[in-house]
Amino acid sequence: MDTNHSELLQLPPSEQLRIVEMLWDNLGSSTDAIPLPEWVDREGRRRMDEMIADPTLGSDGASVWRNIESRNG
Predict the structure, then answer these.
(1) What is the 3-state secondary structure of the chain?
(2) Predicted pLDDT of residue 49
(3) How far apart are CA 51 and CA 13, in angstroms?
(4) Is 37 left (phi over 0), alpha (psi -120 to 50) or beta?
(5) Which terminus of the chain has a smaller tally of CB atoms within 10 A, N or C?
(6) How many domains does the chain have?
(7) pLDDT block averages, 10 residues each, the chain of length 73
(8) Domain membership of residue 21 as a residue range
(9) Is residue 26 within 8 Å of 34, Cβ to Cβ?
(10) pTM (2 decimals)?
């Protein structure tokens, strides 16, 4: 696929966002594996190890939703 990136960058922000959302939704519905860089895996493992070492660093699901709801009124 040949994409002219300069044309995409010329689009207004609202149109760029629409395209990003369309691509994100398409990736989310795909059953294909999405290759991730090695650093993403390393960072995920680092964070997991950190949480295992000190569980007080995290929040449970109920707390997360309470925080979200309090911000959105």
Answers:
(1) CCCCHHHHHHCCHHHHHHHHHHHHHHHHHCCCCCCCCHHHHHHHHHHHHHHHHCHHHCCCHHHHHHHHHHHHC
(2) 97
(3) 37
(4) beta
(5) N
(6) 1
(7) 82 97 94 93 96 91 93 82
(8) 5-72
(9) no
(10) 0.51
